[in-house]
Amino acid sequence: MERRYAAGSLQHFAAHALRWAGARGEDANLVAEGLTAADLRGVHSHGVVRTRIYVLRLKHGSINANGSLRVVHDAGPLVLADAGDGLGIAMAARAMDMAIQRAQLHGVGVVGVRNSSHCGMLAWPTMRAVRMKMIGIAMSNADAKVAPWGARTKYLGTNPIAIAIPTAHEPPIILDMATSFVAHGRIVAAATRGETIPAGWAVDGDGRMTTDPHQALQGALLPFGGAKGSGLALIIDVLAGLWTGALSGPMITPLYQQLDRAQGLGHLFVAFSVEAFTDLEGFTERVDRFIRDIRSLPPAEGHTRVYLPGEIEHLRTIEYQERGIPLPPDVVAEIQRVAGEIGIAAPVGS
Amino acid sequence: MERRYAAGSLQHFAAHALRWAGARGEDANLVAEGLTAADLRGVHSHGVVRTRIYVLRLKHGSINANGSLRVVHDAGPLVLADAGDGLGIAMAARAMDMAIQRAQLHGVGVVGVRNSSHCGMLAWPTMRAVRMKMIGIAMSNADAKVAPWGARTKYLGTNPIAIAIPTAHEPPIILDMATSFVAHGRIVAAATRGETIPAGWAVDGDGRMTTDPHQALQGALLPFGGAKGSGLALIIDVLAGLWTGALSGPMITPLYQQLDRAQGLGHLFVAFSVEAFTDLEGFTERVDRFIRDIRSLPPAEGHTRVYLPGEIEHLRTIEYQERGIPLPPDVVAEIQRVAGEIGIAAPVGS
Known about the structure:
The structure is a homodimer. By secondary structure, chain A is an alpha+beta fold. Helices cover 41% and strands 14% of the residues of chain A. The first copy, chain A, has helices at residues 7-20, 25-40, 51-60, 88-106, 123-131, 184-193, 213-218, 226-242, 280-295, 311-323, 329-342; strands at 70-75, 78-82, 108-116, 134-140, 161-165, 173-177, 202-203, 220-221, 265-273. A 7-stranded mixed beta sheet of chain A has the order 1-2-3-9-4-5-6, with helices on both faces. In chain A, strands 7-8 form a two-stranded antiparallel sheet. In chain A, a hairpin with a 7-residue loop joins β5 and β6 (173-177). In chain A, α1 runs parallel beside α3 (51-60), α2 crosses α4 (88-106) and α4 (88-106) packs parallel to α5. The radius of gyration of chain A is 20 Å and the shape is globular. The interface between A and B is large, with 70 and 70 residues.
């Protein structure tokens, strides 16, 4: 029988483990909240399954337990900050909060972050903007896994971007996407299960399209949407990486390799005050109507109805808050593993 | 034998025709420059072929010859402007220039535009930012032609976005893309030539995938990259349309229909000052190295080498400036047609 986990117990567990590894209380709480938010949205690849790697990196010192967001350059609406190799999810939350504060003052806030680490599900920081009735944008570069359009070898990261739009009564629009065709984790999962992958996801080590996930892991992911997705991935590395002074794709340390070496990631967070252009109520009601219009379009073949970006994840959150989160077995195994390693109690499902 | 046209003669012609139709000299010149810039990049769908429709709309009054960019709300780094149904390309240039000025003062400039008309190739305003060594972003909504992901009928526009990055010695990176899988014009062209279209471009009036361009024109385009491209298209309508107070997709008048009715389009322009975060020289040299790294990756099957976004268009511009622009026959026919209608000399190729 499927077991479900209370969000609070996952959050408590992750915070406990991170504090055990040396994280400051406030950082541990922010990271645990961000991880749990991902599981609540059903994005388990970015949920509490990540607790163990953050713990390991904290113990190795490549995530700095004392790292904090230090302002390098303050240009009013724009701030460049150095994360000092701190916990990426906590840094992302603080950087977005800073962008929100700047947008409250100036109408727009742009915060670049360098020397950071894996910052989790990007929807989460943008949800902080939406809660303040602002438009939020978050992007991050990542280690090289994706072949740019026209190339046969990897250079770009899966460089994700999230954009969130506040609403009046409807769930917020939250677009959160990697710029690779699929997440790296889906290829790892196919390899683990002995399944093939669809053509178009990846190329092998010689740059040939492959349906063998093992070959794909030796090769490169492909960008989503061909040249267009590749172009977006590349722009994100420029904005979040080169502009902030972070490392870019090929220089970034992968999360699960060289655990004693800092990752050197870069992020960019933007907040727009809706009220810089128009009244908040009028805007959010226009967005609500737009959402309802699109939702009521006749569905395409193979679809039961039209969903807005982030809507399925929102519906999951409501269900999971009420009934608990159905964690996949590999996630349960991973959190039991780290619990055993550090000698704390793993969360108990029911 | 192929005929080529000097960029200057096309620009002169377009400006002449627009002035004939009542446009003010400065507006006519800006629009003619924007159109010619598109032909110079080989983007003939957005070049002087558009002269005739702008002339017709000026004569019908649905493009207002006296329309100019009026500031509605000035929030420092952010400005909301009303284009008064003026010539979209001229409005885009002025709005981007305003974003650049604000970015010079504040580090970032964001200019929203409502009540505008078709604003041409979006790469062009972003090139104005790049010339000032700034990062430029432009987006526009458009009339409903695209079915959102999961829907069988059209609602969103082809909602394009362009992002341009300044460089030291390399050509600037200029990503300019519609969020539809292909431009509407390619389906019109296939229909004209009696060709089929690949599966994945469009659905018919019943929402079924079609390879018949005539059926596709009764139906809807599909977004690029599935749910991700659809999400981007939708976000662009929110930012450029709903936020600015412009019309959104289904309410916008298509460029070639109801010529006596204003289009009501919205745009958003963003300029970032590179120097808000870092020194310009260091940044542009990092971008140059990034470009050279990517360009020298081994090419994928079917590619001779890797091109950066906007690089092919840049190479065309250099060639076309030297040897003239090889206009496609349908473009030549269209400019000869409008020349005949209004009694001015058409450009002469050689």
